[in-house]
Task: inverse folding
């Protein structure tokens, strides 16, 4: 029964390869203000180039620093502590 749960690979479905120009791949192209990924992000918005995004809570024990999640609550220091504690528990469990 367990062997039937292994997915069958469909070689006709491949990952979409997006070509990046040399400038966007360079470490030197990190912007001096705004989000550090703005030059390489396919979802970049004007605000990304103007200011760095805060941390937004996406789920219990999870957070992301991206304006795509601006509808989510912004994490303060206490919320960040909760996320870090949850992450440490996950990492410790994976190591066991």
Result:
């Amino acid at each position: 029964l367990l062997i039937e749960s292994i997915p069958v690979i469909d070689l006709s479905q491949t990952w979409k390869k997006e070509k990046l120009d040399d400038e966007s791949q360079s470490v030197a192209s990190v912007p001096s203000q705004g989000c550090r990924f703005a030059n390489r992000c396919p979802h970049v918005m004007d605000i990304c180039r103007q200011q760095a995004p805060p941390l937004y809570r996406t789920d219990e024990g999870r957070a992301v620093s991206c304006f795509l999640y601006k509808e989510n609550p912004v994490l303060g220091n206490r919320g960040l502590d909760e996320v870090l504690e949850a992450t440490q528990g996950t990492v410790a469990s994976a190591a066991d």
The two ends are 27 Å apart (CA to CA). Strands lie at 56-59, 62-64. Residues 20-95 form one domain.
